[in-house]
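Morning. Coffee machine broken again, so started the prediction first thing and wrote up yesterday's gels while waiting. Chain of 470 residues, entered below exactly as on the submission form.
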Amino acid sequence: SFSLYLSFPTTTLFSHYLSLISISLSTISLHLSLSPHSLTLLSTAGNYITDDVIPQRRSSARRVFSICCLFDLLLISIIWLIVAVNHYSSLTDAYDKEIKHFKYSTSMADLMLLSLIRAVILIVHYWIIVSKMQITIGLTTTISTVYVFVKLIEYSHDESWNTFETYSLPLISFIICWVEVWLFETKVLKIENQVSRILRPRYDIRTPLLSAPGDYGSNTGSNFNYSAFMTPTANMSPGGERFQADTSTLDPRGQMLFGVALEAHAELKETVLWPDGWTTESDKDGIKIFSRAQRNAPNRLFLSESHFLCSLEDLFEVLYHQMDRVVEWNGSITYVEMVERFSRNLDLVYTVGVGGGGGLIKSREFLSLRYWIKERDMFYIVSRDISDPIKPVSKQYARGFNGPCGYVFFPALDGSVKLAYVVNCDLKLPFVPQKVITSSLVDVVHDFHVALRNKIDDHLESKRGNHSGF
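Came back before lunch.
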């Protein structure tokens, strides 16, 4: 890009630059004005997404990112003009010394061109093309950072210039390019992935996913029998024992959260019924763990299964009603708090997980919406994270993300209870390789099943002791 800059005739360089800015601003303004309505995230006492939200091609976060890129170009250009006016006798003099007789070691005008190129590339790639690829912003940021550092090393400081005039342009150029990275990673991708995950097209889970015969994960060589997760239809006789909460007593906020819980329940069903793409991660001690990549999320999805010699009610008692005692047996949880109970089967729970790396990785906190439902002999305990002002993000911990996850358990043919445990957790560790995260989560899931077996044994022993009179 810099070689192209020098290839222009020096007498027309400034006019070329102004023409490029004019064309770029016109194109960007046209696309911003003709774009469809941005995606709106309804927020009532937190970030809850309802059926009224219609996903569009460009989100509001992507629009803000594009405006930030445009602001980058305008700010650098305006600051250069301010510095030029203050230092030189006129703009003509500034043009003559900074652009017409450009010298890399004495002029800062090249930073305007760098900003223009960066803005055009990012806006074309992320607003016009609507791409989610991170390589483009990674390259522009890397090139801009290296260029600014080399510029500062090679720059010959003019003693007549003060510190602001000398270092304002490279410093601001460096800061803004990294602000763009932060905005794209934490706002654009996060919001769009979350919305696409929740608002994916609905369909009848039973028909398409169970149409093909075979074992669960047959494409990957696993022997998980997904037909065991067939759930009964909604039309049941009273003897079917299908429990559904009465939502008439819920306030508007509770009604909205109940809708989120139903979405999570549907996604949990989809997970345990999905026959393809699973990879066996572990198969030992009677505990099988599978994982697969997700379509619209960076983290992998984990599905594990094991058997327990107890009743459905005993397992439900330990996993749901004794949630406040989970720290006694689950080594991955250090704190549990029941934040709010909306109904018999809908509540809000706050948990804190253990840290890692000898304290280098902070403990993760989760604010989770829990919902349970029983359909015939199948129990579903569904969980997903939400944002709610009733429990703001703590400075002591890092906020983790839990997509739709939870437990599904039912009677097995051998008389035991079969448990499927779905983990959909994003620990927000961008610099840790996925293989390391996968290996760690496999160990955590395996330890969970082992600890739960021991807890069930203690629970049954306690019941026997109470029944015998002790």
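Residues 1-21, 23-56, 198-242 have pLDDT under 50 and may be disordered. Going to sketch it on the whiteboard this afternoon.
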